[in-house]
Amino acid sequence: MKEKIMVVDDVDTIARVYARFLERMGYEVRIAFNGQEALELWENYQPDLIISDIRMPKMNGFELANAIRKKKADQKIILMTGYADEAEVLEQQKSHGYPFFTKPADLQTTVSKIVQDVLEGTYKSEVK
């Protein structure tokens, strides 16, 4: 059975590029375009992994991640951002323990490695 991934990004092009890449890697993928839509989709889809943008309308990525973790504490979640303001992201990552990457990210190396590590449970944060 294929592992299921949900990609959440309010930019249609980005969401579809990541989804197509992950499908080519062999995953089953669904897309949501904001946090509220993702939360609704999550209820029925129950993905193995969520990859979510941080800054989105209606519900940001941290709010989405926290809402889902209240329902399923061990849900695997990766956050992504296109903003250079990494200090905020690093602080949030440390306090919430969510792996993250910045966009644009190299799909073949960065994204595929983080996804595989998180799904296998071998992801190690560089932040201490």
Q: What does this molecule look like?
A:
With 128 residues, the protein is of the alpha/beta class. The chain has one domain (4-120): 3-Layer(aba) Sandwich (Rossmann fold), CATH 3.40.50. Helices cover 47% and strands 19% of the residues. It has 5 helices and 5 strands; from the N terminus they run E-H-E-H-E-H-E-H-E-H. Strands 2-1-3-4-5 form a 5-stranded parallel beta sheet, sandwiched between helices. The protein is globular and about 30 Å long. It starts with a strand and ends in an 8-residue tail after the last helix. The model has no long low-confidence stretch (mean pLDDT 85).
Architecture blueprint of SSEs:
Elements: E1 4-8, H1 12-24, E2 28-32, H2 35-45, E3 49-53, H3 61-71, E4 76-81, H4 86-96, E5 100-102, H5 107-120
Parallel strand pairs: 1-2, 1-3, 3-4, 4-5
Helix pairs in contact: 2-3
Features:
five-stranded parallel beta sheet; Rossmann fold; 128 residues; alpha/beta; 19% strand
Q: Could you provide a short overview of the structure?
A:
The chain has helices at residues 12-24, 35-45, 61-71, 86-96, 107-120, and strands at 4-8, 28-32, 49-53, 76-81, 100-102. It is an alpha/beta fold and 128 residues long.
**Helix count from the secondary structure assignment:** 5
Query: Share of helix among residues?
Result: 40-55%
- The CATH superfamily is known as Response regulator
Low-confidence stretches: none
Give the N-terminus to C-terminus distance in angstroms: 35 Å
CATH architecture: 3-Layer(aba) Sandwich
- The number of strands is 5
Number of separate domains: 1
Indicate the proportion of strand residues.
Answer: 15-25%
Q: What structural category do the secondary elements indicate? A: alpha/beta
Q: Report the average pLDDT across residues.
A: 85
CATH topology: Rossmann fold
Question: What sort of overall outline do the alpha carbons produce when their principal axes are compared?
Answer: globular
Q: What value does the Rg take, in angstroms?
A: 13 Å
Give the C-level CATH assignment: Alpha Beta
The largest sheet has its strands arranged as 2-1-3-4-5
**SSE run:** EHEHEHEHEH
Q: Characterize the largest beta sheet: strand count, sense, and whether it forms a barrel.
A: 5 strands, parallel
